[in-house]
Design a protein that fits this description.
Elements: E1 2-6, E2 13-18, E3 23-27, E4 35-37, E5 44-49, E6 56-61, E7 66-70
Length: 71
């Protein structure tokens, strides 16, 4: 599983999640993630930036869960 989404409100900011339960927030000009969240309870299947709140994103897991996070 996994997911990736470019921010519409902060150019160059990417959120991605994967099967290792991690969520990473990247600035495209940096080789290292800006933030790493490694406490998601299951595989991340999708991730999406909130289109109205600049630093908020939603994460879906393979267990059907949905969580809201902030970068």
């Amino acid at each position: 599983g996994g997911g990736l989404d470019w921010s519409d409100m902060d150019e160059g900011l990417i959120a991605c999640g994967s099967g290792d339960h991690r969520i990473c927030i990247w600035k495209i000009e940096s080789p290292q993630p800006q933030l790493v969240f490694d406490n998601h309870p299951c595989d991340v299947t999708d991730i999406s930036w909130n289109r109205k709140e600049k630093d908020q994103f939603g994460v879906a897991g393979n267990d059907g869960s949905v969580e809201i996070g902030r970068a």
